[in-house]
């Protein structure tokens, strides 16, 4: 694994070479990743994968023309040819008045925030195999489980370094671990499948493998013999493991590129209340050990905690420099990128603040409703906000979770859904996007 100093030296040297070759401005990104993945099925080792690779990407500007290139060959000759090719490409590219590096006066300066993203652990493949076995054994031990799709465990580490020609240089390292299990319950045409997983930056934070497996088994068995619900309007509850998808649709609608292209259903809602009073959605890039924590963004700008939704009000767009220039605004420190191409936009560790009522209290007045635990398909229109997705989960009858249901569709419009959304009090920080159980009234269910 490259040291952080070595990684920073690589990108600094590449930027210097680009400037020497005729670029007016440039930035370079280096990424190295190591990972080990072990999978088992039916008590036997199925696969062990090990990957170890490094890539470097260069983006340069000749006037308002730009080009991006990348390479996994980091030899001196390969990088020299990379720079020459990028300069030649940029000179032939169309002009783009919005392209360019981030504003120099906004660059990150000083000591990076320590987000505790790397624990230094290096579990052996045998340890990962033991964890995967424990997860599958626990899942298969659940009464009613009849088969297994397998279980897995993984460990990895990444190094990222970024340098720009106008003064930014930074690097950081992250570790990551995961454990999962997927099993089948029932037989014949009555079979049902479900899964469970957990990911963490520190190995010590990774959930016990047997707990993960037991959850996968219980979920699969709980889905056996599903029924259907009658069609009509009713309260829809979104389980925390899939409720974060609603937040994802919101983020997609408030990125600078969507707004600049006028392809967002929230185009004219900046500064307006789009959720109920009291609803808060926070982006927290500095959460210790957070799955997406980082001290600076993909353009070298500082990251900071932001209430994207404050007391129900949409506070701003998420922008990298190009879309910010197009909108006449400032970038927000949400740029993200790979080694190839220009920066995009992404939030970091998102969470919807919990409400005051428990799940049981939110369900208490529901005569007939549904708790959705799985969503199917991609039926969301980002321009209009129309929402229609296949789903399965559990009926809610007289305020209590009842029988499993499948082959249903839940539909509405995201603007109406956001306005009606009520969060429960059961928020747990577990994923990159965390939400409590969500109640949304007024949706339409298509069932039997």
UniProtKB/TrEMBL annotation:
InterPro entries: Metalloprtase-TldD/E_C (IPR045569), Metalloprtase-TldD/E_cen_dom (IPR045570), Metalloprtase-TldD/E_N (IPR002510), PmbA (IPR047657), TldD/PmbA_N (IPR035068), TldD/PmbA_sf (IPR036059). Residues 231-447 form the Metalloprotease TldD/E C-terminal domain. SUPFAM superfamilies: Putative modulator of DNA gyrase, PmbA/TldD. Residues 26-90 form the Metalloprotease TldD/E N-terminal domain. Residues 121-224 form the Metalloprotease TldD/E central domain. Belongs to the peptidase U62 family. PANTHER family: METALLOPROTEASE PMBA. This is TldD/PmbA family protein. It comes from Sphingomonas naphthae.
